[in-house]
Amino acid sequence: MAKVKVHVFLKPGVLDVQGKAVEGALQGLGWSGVSNARVGKMIEFDLADDVTDKDAEVKAMCEKLLANTVIESYKIEIA
After folding, report:
1. Up-side HSE of residue 9: CA atoms within 13 Å toward CB?
2. What span, in angstroms and rounded, lies between the C-alpha atoms of 32 and 52?
3. Backbone φ, ψ for residue 77 (5° rounding)
4. How far is CA 28 from CA 19, 24, 37, 40, in A?
5. Running DSSP on this structure, what letter comes out for residue 66?
6. 70 alpha carbon, distance to own chain's centre
7. Of 9, 27, 36, 39, which residue is the least packed, with the fewest Cβ within 10 Å?
8. pLDDT tens digit string along 45-70?
9. pTM for the model
10. Cα–chain-centroid distance for residue 13?
């Protein structure tokens, strides 16, 4: 089994409301040096060894379901 991690994050220029909330909360708790906080998501799963082109398969998963490619980018890690 291959271990797959997909990191999904908003593209630059897309307002990250959750990131702004985290940034404000951290500053409110005394960490005044925090800025430009962005919040993303990570999806982990196992992929069967018999999948021949793992990169292409995971990319197809991202394009069809895991990421909204209009506003999000993604990075794939396969180990």
Report:
1. 11
2. 49
3. -125, 125
4. 14, 6, 14, 21
5. I
6. 14
7. 36
8. 999 999 999 999 999 999 999 999 99
9. 0.88
10. 16
